[in-house]
């Protein structure tokens, strides 16, 4: 340790997405390569001398205590813990975080010293991992509200790779074995008798950490919700969700100095007849065991919805990743105007 293969892998993974702006301190981390990156981890981040860095990933993260603030983080997985190296601007993003983040180095703010805060979740405190629809994100849950983090990878490959690495590291933990399970019948094993609904798929790892995957009912619930938003324009059996993807909506800020654009996180859902943008709560659902009341907002809130038949053209950007798409819709007040004119003109 560290092997040549590991150093090559973390060097390749140490790239900030081009559309995200981060502080100078995180840009410094992204500039490190190979052995320098491993040495940086051991001298600045690692809490135990004999722990090994196993995986590195850049991802947007959300914390349960601050669900409205999405921040870029360098996620480092070691044999002892998961470290989230955060942009220092995150501390000032929300005034309610003063209890959550204890900021002591306020005298450094005006100097040339760039500060990053690091959130640590020890593997021994890990209880469950919820994988989102189509592996677009995953939520890591510890033993309290302070220990719930969602990684919005927006990429099924990154999610899959991290989960694989996490399972491998958890296998190294020495935990007392679980007691022998009591024999259960089929219904108590796979369903909840109180609701009659099938539970989500659960994989209980040898370390006793639960890995929870969505089942088909989540897609069914989402299709029902989408149909509700369409005011009954279509019948539910024929409604198919063709695409579910976490994306950004680009809002151009024309009044700013450089005519910049802000990125608003949105969930894009494409059906056979409509295109929807939803504001989705990625952190509060499913409810943690200690939650005393449901969240203030629903999991999905409709932000915009258009009919595919009103789509005029799609403009594609020429950059590689992330791909920019502009959907141009016909802005006609009476959407069925053409159809009515045709009927009037040609009669029966």
Automatic annotation (TrEMBL):
Q: Which GO terms describe its biological process?
A: Golgi organization; lysosome localization; regulation of protein localization
Just give the chief location class. cytoplasm
Q: Which residues form the PLEKHM2 PH domain?
A: 114-178
Q: Where is the Nischarin C-terminal PH domain?
A: 241-347
Q: What are the UniProt keywords, alphabetically?
A: Cytoplasm
Name a GO CC annotation attached to this entry.
endosome membrane
Q: Name one GO molecular function term.
A: kinesin binding
Record's subcellular location: Cytoplasm
Q: Name one Pfam family in it.
A: PH_PLEKHM2
> Cell membrane as a keyword?
no
Q: Does the keyword Cytoplasm apply?
A: yes
PANTHER family per the UniProt record, alphabetical:
PLECKSTRIN HOMOLOGY DOMAIN-CONTAINING FAMILY M MEMBER 2
Q: What is this protein called?
A: NISCH protein
């Amino acid at each position: 340790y560290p092997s040549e293969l590991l150093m090559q892998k973390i060097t390749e993974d140490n790239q900030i997405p081009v559309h995200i702006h981060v502080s100078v301190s995180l840009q410094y981390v992204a500039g490190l390569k190979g052995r320098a990156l491993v040495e940086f981890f051991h001298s600045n981040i690692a809490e135990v001398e004999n722990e090994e860095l196993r995986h590195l990933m850049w991802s947007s993260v959300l914390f349960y205590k601050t669900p409205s603030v999405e921040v870029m983080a360098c996620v480092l997985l070691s044999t002892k813990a998961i470290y989230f190296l955060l942009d220092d601007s995150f501390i000032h993003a929300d005034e309610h975080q003063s209890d959550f983040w204890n900021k002591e180095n306020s005298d450094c703010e005006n100097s040339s010293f760039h500060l990053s805060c690091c959130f640590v979740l020890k593997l021994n405190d890990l209880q469950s991992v919820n994988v989102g629809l189509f592996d677009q994100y995953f939520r890591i849950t510890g033993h309290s509200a302070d220990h719930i983090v969602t990684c919005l990878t927006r990429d099924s490959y990154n999610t899959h790779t991290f989960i694989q690495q996490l399972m491998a590291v958890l296998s190294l933990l020495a935990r007392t074995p679980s007691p022998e399970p009591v024999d259960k019948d089929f219904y108590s094993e796979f369903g909840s008798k109180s609701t009659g609904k099938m539970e989500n798929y659960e994989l209980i790892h040898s370390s006793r950490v639960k890995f929870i995957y969505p089942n088909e009912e989540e897609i069914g619930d989402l299709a029902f919700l989408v149909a509700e938003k369409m005011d009954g324009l279509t019948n539910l059996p024929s409604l198919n969700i063709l695409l579910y993807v976490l994306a950004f909506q680009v809002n151009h800020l024309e009044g700013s100095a450089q005519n910049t654009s802000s990125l608003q996180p949105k969930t894009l859902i494409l059906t056979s007849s409509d295109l929807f943008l939803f504001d989705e709560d990625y952190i509060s659902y499913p409810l943690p065991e200690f939650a005393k009341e449901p969240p203030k907002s629903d999991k999905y809130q409709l932000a915009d919805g258009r009919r595919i038949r009103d789509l005029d053209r799609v403009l594609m950007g020429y950059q590689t990743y992330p791909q920019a798409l502009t959907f141009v819709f016909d802005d006609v007040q009476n959407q069925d105007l053409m159809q009515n004119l045709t009927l009037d003109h040609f009669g029966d």
